[in-house]
Amino acid sequence: MSILAIDIGGTKLAAALVDDKLNISARREIPTPGSRTPEALEEALSGLVQPLKGYADCFAAASTGIIRHGVLTALNPSNLGGLEQFPLFRILNEITGLPGVTLNDAQAAAWAEYNALRGNIRDMVFITVSTGVGGGIISNGRLLTGPGGLAGHLGHLIADPQGPQCGCGRKGCVEAIASGRAIASAARYELEGLTAKAIFAHASAGNAQARVLIQRSASAIAALIADIKMITDCQEIVIGGSVGLAPGYIDLVSDILNQQPDIYNASISPARYNHNAGIIGSALLALKMMKKEVL
Description:
Elements: E1 2-8, E2 12-19, E3 24-31, H1 38-49, E4 58-63, E5 66-68, E6 71-73, H2 77-80, H3 88-96, E7 100-104, H4 105-117, E8 124-129, E9 133-139, E10 142-144, H5 174-178, H6 180-186, H7 196-204, H8 208-232, E11 236-240, H9 249-257, E12 268-270, H10 277-289
Helix pairs in contact: 1-3, 4-10, 7-8, 8-9
């Protein structure tokens, strides 16, 4: 069986063929359309998947935002703006002519990372720190999505009630402090206008402001992990995303978390699938849907 797996993010769109052994082939990637309109996204998705659809038995799409009954709505318009009630499943079904499944990208990544852990772990939480901050929750071996598709949107828990405005409409969300977009937005003077990746490079070179910005991000994630531990009592926290997997970031989060009482500590590991987590996770769920589950 071959799955056309699609990953829709704030900065890129990716697609690949995934077989039932989780081998990835023919991976393609394009920038997310700058206009962020429904028409632009539909056109980009069509161009992305056209060369692959003839080789697949079904599609599996993972996207940032809320996915409810196959309909996508951007929770934070700054990350995927212009989209409200975007019929993601219907459009992909029409483009490909295939059956499929749609879900949130961090939920998909959580399922991929959970399956990679194997062992005796039944309760795990995945956190992605990238353009935004998202997550996925595995409870007793099951992926939680929730009736409204909201389960796991951990980036919109409050980190600082007096903090910056978040694109979701709340103030002081973890995402508004810890994400790559937030790191870049908070930069001033010599760092103003730089990307989070460039700010990390400046931090490695000893820039004091860059180090403060990254410390602020890591502190918000450490506090989030402590809260998650108390809410879920999970056995493992897995961190992914371009910021989360930046050199030294997980160690910094762990060091900050270790300053808390022991009860708040959690085992933290880096994501295994990195930028392919959404693709692998959605493919796994498609295989499960098609009664060919891979465990």
